[in-house]
Amino acid sequence: MLLSLLRPFFAAFHSWLEPKLFLFFGPAKDELLKPLKNLDSPHNTLQVLEIGIGNGANFQYYPPNFRITALDVNDHFEKYLKENVKKYEITLEKLVFCKAEDMKEIADDSMDIVVSTLLLCCVEDPYRVIKEIKRVLKSDGKWIFLEHGRFRGKMFHNLIQWLLNPLTYIIGAGCRLTRKIDFMIESVHFSSVDIKYREIAKYGFTLPIFPHYYGIAVK
Ligand SMILES: C[S@@+](CC[C@H](N)C(=O)[O-])C[C@H]1O[C@@H](n2cnc3c(N)ncnc32)[C@H](O)[C@@H]1O
């Protein structure tokens, strides 16, 4: 309820914060999303769904043959998103505002690619979201994801994450730092899953936030 009331604030705040978050997630985003430009072919358009699209942070990676359906729960992002649609000359087929847990407007087996970045930390039911992603993908469709979650095998860092959770929940629109992203993705049985794990280190010290999981799952 409180989070819903704060949606105009979250849309403005995240649109301001997003370039700064790139300092943490940029290397993984580049590794994961830059190869999308190689999928460009004027004769082969691809149906792409980006979930939790926010202000369109990933548009810089999309080639002209992508036909994009953008989905987010927060309709206050629309004005920031449309600015980036114009800036990056994106072909936006459809803009849907609904929860990713129940994407009624997206047909079964309709998408070549689903993209999500920094989504699963803040949805209410990540398992339902992952099942929905699998439902909307075509038979050989790919889900490309980059999500932050729980540290692997670092008890002190896990403790700090638990302590910070209430703060990130309030200022990050329901963001939890401690989700077991790899476990969640693997439990939904895609035909193949490739997950990489990265921590952020500065001066030889692992920062106690934002270890991330990124990769590709094929339906
Ligand atoms: C941390 S932001 C990430 C935005 C963008 N993907 C990026 O990488 O900068 C999380 C986004 O997911 C959206 N979101 C949160 N819960 C959602 C849900 N249940 N269904 C769809 N979108 C949701 C938020 O409104 C927000 O745009």
Q: Could you please describe the fold and organization of this structure?
A:
- The mean pLDDT is 93.
- By secondary structure, this protein is α/β, with parallel strands linked by helices.
- It is 34% helix and 26% strand.
- The N and C termini lie far apart (34 Å).
- The strands form two sheets. A seven-stranded mixed beta sheet has the order 3-2-1-4-5-9-6.
- The chain has one domain (2-218): Vaccinia Virus protein VP39 (Rossmann fold), CATH 3.40.50.
- It contains six helices and nine strands.
- The site of S-adenosylmethionine has 20 residues, from α2.
- Residues 14, 18, 51-54, 57, 72-74, 77, 99-101, 117-119, 122-123, 173 line the site of S-adenosylmethionine (SAM).
CATH superfamily: Vaccinia Virus protein VP39
Query: Which structural category do the helix and sheet elements fall into?
Result: alpha/beta
Architecture in CATH?
Answer: 3-Layer(aba) Sandwich
- Average per-residue pLDDT, rounded, comes to 93
CATH topology: Rossmann fold
Principal-axis shape equals: globular
Ions and ligands: S-adenosylmethionine
Rg calculated over all Cα atoms:
17 Å
Question: How many H/I helices?
Answer: 6
CATH class: Alpha Beta
Oligomer: single chain
Note the gap between the termini: 34 Å
Number of structurally distinct domains = 1
Beta-strand residue fraction: 25-35%
Strand order in the largest sheet:
3-2-1-4-5-9-6
Model regions low in confidence, pLDDT < 50 over at least 5 residues:
none
User: How does the major sheet shape up?
Assistant: 7 strands, mixed
Compressed to H and E, one letter per element, the order equals HHEEHEEHEHHEEEE
Number of strands: 9
The portion of residues assigned to helices is 25-40%
